[in-house]
């Protein structure tokens, strides 16, 4: 591979795809957390549930320090779904920064 093959315009499609998939995956994990709040007996530290609990709990624990439960309901997963959705739209949505950079690089090259 040459140095020109690793230039920024060549990496934009990969960056766009990776960011889109990463943010979509995070959104899904937090949506699972929202559904799992309906089942308080589920232990997120055991078995397959660790796939949902391990990546989300550190972020939620920090957020819980700032946002207290409302009426006894933990709303932090909902807050994160909103924040990640906003970030995803700003970066890889139709008018997102990475999307526009990708489109601009395709029209130039």
Key terms:
mainly alpha, single chain, 109 residues, 69% helix
Quick recap of the structure?
The protein has 109 residues and is mainly alpha-helical. It is 69% helix and 0% strand. The protein has one domain (13-108).
Number of strands: 0
Number of helical elements: 4
Count of domains? 1
What distance separates the N and C termini?
Answer: 19 Å
Poorly predicted sequence stretches spanning 5 or more consecutive residues: none
What structural class do helix, strand and pairing data support? mainly alpha
Helix content: 55-70%
Order of helices and strands: HHHH
Q: What is the average per-residue confidence, as pLDDT, rounded to a whole number?
A: 89
Strand content: under 5%
Question: What gross morphology would you assign?
Answer: elongated
The major beta sheet can be summarized as:
none
Rg over alpha carbons: 18 Å
Detailed description of the structure:
This protein has 109 residues and is mostly helical. It has one domain (13-108). The protein has four helices and no strands. The longest helix has 29 residues, at 8-36. The chain is elongated and about 55 Å long. The mean pLDDT is 89.
Secondary structure blueprint with pairings:
Blueprint: H1 8-36, H2 50-66, H3 76-92, H4 97-108
Helix pairs in contact: 1-2, 1-3, 1-4
